[in-house]
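#onboarding

Welcome to the new folks! Below is a worked example of what a typical request in this channel looks like: someone posts a single protein sequence, and someone else replies with the predicted structure as tokens. Don't worry about understanding the tokens yet, we'll cover that in week two.

Example request:
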Amino acid sequence: MNGCNLMWIVLLALPVRAADLAPELWDRPRSAQAVMAQPAVRQAVAACQASGAARIVIIHGPRQEAQLQAEELRAWLVALAVDGARLQLRTDRAATLLRLEVTEQVKE
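Example response:
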């Protein structure tokens, strides 16, 4: 296989499901139990556990506070045994809440 043929191997990120985190999570001290009590987090972690190809994208707004919340959530997910390599942060200028999107990498 030469270098040109390698270009035909493409990884696509296909959205599986997405959910917003409740803003109340940030109104009180966080714990592993409080983070896992969030339906969006439970669903995303379960999807990651169910599929080795699943990835979690943490979508946040452009403000510094939103970015810090996304980074804290990423740290909580790693502490809850989600592989950090399966997590990605992404800024969305229109986002007002943190959103978790579960994607799967598919080879074509």
